[in-house]
Write a structure and sequence with these properties.
With 108 residues, the chain is an all-alpha fold.
């Protein structure tokens, strides 16, 4: 029979109790290490996805800027054509009649 001073609360020896505690600590440490590894991997995946999203958004922004530049250039060309047509249709030498000028002022 086991002597009383070496028996623990559950009838186990002190050495076995220490082994169980050490095993529980080792399993806890291994679980913690796995958890930390998983969190680190998830962080890296998230950082990579975020970097890809930023690159995609920058490309979209550059495409939008190019579209705006193109539209601005088209608008300037259209304004230039309209100004040329206006000059051709109404020569600069032909003054606007005074009666037309007075009516235009009264409408304002």
């Amino acid at each position: 029979m086991t002597p009383v001073r070496t028996a623990g609360a559950l009838g186990t020896t002190v050495r076995r109790r220490r082994q169980r505690v050490a095993l529980a600590i080792a399993l806890g440490a291994a679980g913690g290490a796995i958890l930390l590894f998983s969190l680190g991997a998830a962080y890296l995946v998230g950082a990579a996805e975020r970097a890809n999203e930023v690159a995609r958004l920058e490309a979209d922004l550059e495409a939008a800027r190019a579209a705006v530049r193109e539209a601005t250039a088209r608008m300037a060309a259209a304004e230039e054509r309209a100004a040329r047509l206006e000059r051709v249709q109404r020569p600069a030498a032909a003054p606007v009649p005074a009666a037309r000028r007075s009516r235009a002022r009264s409408r304002r």
